[in-house]
Records
---
Amino acid sequence: MSTNSVKVGLIQMECSIKAGENINKALSSVESMAKKGANIICLQELFSTTYFCNETDERYFEYAEAIPGPVTEKFSKIAAEHKIVLILPYFERLAAGIYYNTAAVIDADGRYLGKYRKTHIPDDPGFHEKYYFTPGDTGYKVFNTLYGNVGVLICWDQWYPEAARLTALKGADIIFYPTAIGTLPEEGQDEKNKFMDAWLTIQRSHAVANGCFVASINRVGEEGNVSFWGNSFVAGPFGELLARAGEQEEVLLADCNFDTIEKQRRIWPFFRDRRIDTYNDITRRYLDDK
């Protein structure tokens, strides 16, 4: 079952080194947003911990938990109580030595629907994710929830049009991008503005190119050497900004009418006009004249 018009909620928050505090803060924010009418609520990347990937340290593997597990159990209760869909991105332990950056999805009756594991894993100054995370093996996922078809990708995935396209082709009404992006000490205001503009542009372009809604949820606060700058947002299928947060802790609500997807795809029928017979080379790493 799905409805055509839903209220999307994003929780942009600061995190402490105490996972319990972060989880309780998130639970409180979820309950507050549910009372304001939110139907689908998404938390930021690695919401239950600090963004520990700004350094490499074996002790951070202790943050990882099974999915499903204690965290999904806690949030399943509040999902069922308020009839809300929840997207919970946190650190997953599958087995000794195998860890993922994962998002769990819970339906409005409290049922655990499944998980998406982050596909593209970066390794940059301040973002040493390859040390911690195995590349995702779930493929691109769409979850059929009470309020519509929800696609989930995570942070670095947001720069890849292929990931957005495949998720949309699987029927996503909205693609969520839980995120952790910020600036390093050597990066000034001009660089920050350029990164932020590129970040907004690429994700809004996914909404336009696929005729669907896009919601991105970033962190805020100072963690290690990274200053997270928030600016979480929801965009419509024409790329229009429906809601946008600032750079402090904030809960963001946006009304999304999924009926507009069909109209947009009639006006710009990109799916119809795709020349799938010409795309075989997309699976090659690089093309040359040889």
---
Amino acid sequence: MLSIIIPVHNEQDSVFPLHERVSAAMRNIGSDYEVIVVNDGSTDLTEASLKIVAGRDPRFKIVNFRRNFGQTAAMMAGIDFASGSIIIGLDGDLQNDPADIPRLLDKLAEGYDVVSGWRINRKDGMLTRKLPSLIANWLISRMSGVRLHDYGCTLKAYKKDVVKGVKLYGEMHRFIPIYASWQGGKVTEIPVNDFPRSHGRSKYGLERVVKVILDLMVVKFLASYADKPIYVFGGFGLAGIALSFASGMLALYLKFFEHTSFISTPLPLLVVLSFITGVMSILMGLIAEIIMRTYYESQGKQVYLVRDTINLPDNK
């Protein structure tokens, strides 16, 4: 079973062409499929159009949000409702080509856990979309270690077991390949088609780069230090205390060897502020350690992931 997840927001003119294109692409695949369309709080006639499509084709299943929560929440809802062992993400604005889905599945069959689409010939403005995307993709690849050219392409195929249990927030739907890779999954990408937007307007702008960078910092922190937050907070705290000590030594040197009064330099203030900041950071790290241990122990979670076992019960 394949589950195709399509988030939509104010895409009333795209609903019927989208249904036709997806149905045509899936006609020759020879596999059962479902299409979960998540209506992300649309305020136009998108919901009415989706009801018509769902009435004609029971394979199209609709999830209506009460209000607009964003694409990441829509993808998360689609994953939660999906019953297929393979999940495919697809944009609802007709820029992704459903005809690329068989190629994603073929690549997935080669043993990969995630196959990401790469829009080589992207049909978007250079300054408003392409350039910010290039910068964001470069930053994500450098910080995550997962080298992909196009994290922003929604057209991706996942094995459900690599996204099972993943909780997404903010703009983090684009980081699913990173989560999969950090859990031992094999990730690759293939070129896919990209069409110019024919209806409506883009919901993204230059501010998305800032959101992506902030979300990437969260992902990096959770991947590297979620189990040992004291390494971050404690390291910052020790650096603050070291700065306080160095500032104090400099102030004493200036006082006794250069005959410079304490109050004529900002060093005493720097000593106090950096010392207090350092101590507070260490205390925050200890609190984070307690919270982390409470999280794991209260829910019976493990700090490791097992791929499979031999001659052992599955529930071990």
---
Amino acid sequence: MEQPQHSIAAARTSWLSPQRLAALGGSLVIVLGVAWSLATGLAQTLAEKVPELLKAEVLPEKVPDKTPPPPPPELKVPPPPFVPPPDFVIQSDNAVTNTITATTKLPPKTLPSSPASIGRPHVCQQDYPSVSQRLGEEGTTELSFTITADGDVTGLTVSKPSGFERLDSAAVSCASSWHYKPAVLEGKPVSVSWKAAVRWVLH
């Protein structure tokens, strides 16, 4: 049985309907817009990246080091070994030896003059202790002292006792009132060390 022709034409006409053509056109516009956007963005990205890729890295030129090298260490040359000279002995029968003797004379040492006593004689009979007189104590007391530049007596000590302490104490007390004409050295009075003896004798 033969198919009717109008049914096939109706089917073909329905596939190419205006709705489908509008949908296809819209899809094509969307695809082209996306493609254009991708192409534009990729081109811009490449335009930004290309200058960075084309930048050449400029390295500073290395300047050669002009510092002179350190001097070599100084090597000390050891001194030559010491060789003592040979001993030559020349004998001569007519050898003359000259001896020079130098004598140095020292100036004479200047000593101060001896002090002289002034006033009463150096006797202490009036200072004889009464107890010693009753007991019959006698002896000699030796005193050491200093005569100052003024002639006074200072620093009295008993250098040699008489054997009786009362007599020695009386000698020190007596000598403390003594006065001397001071010793003189080069025209000036000076202090000197001195000694004197006090005799204790009963009459």
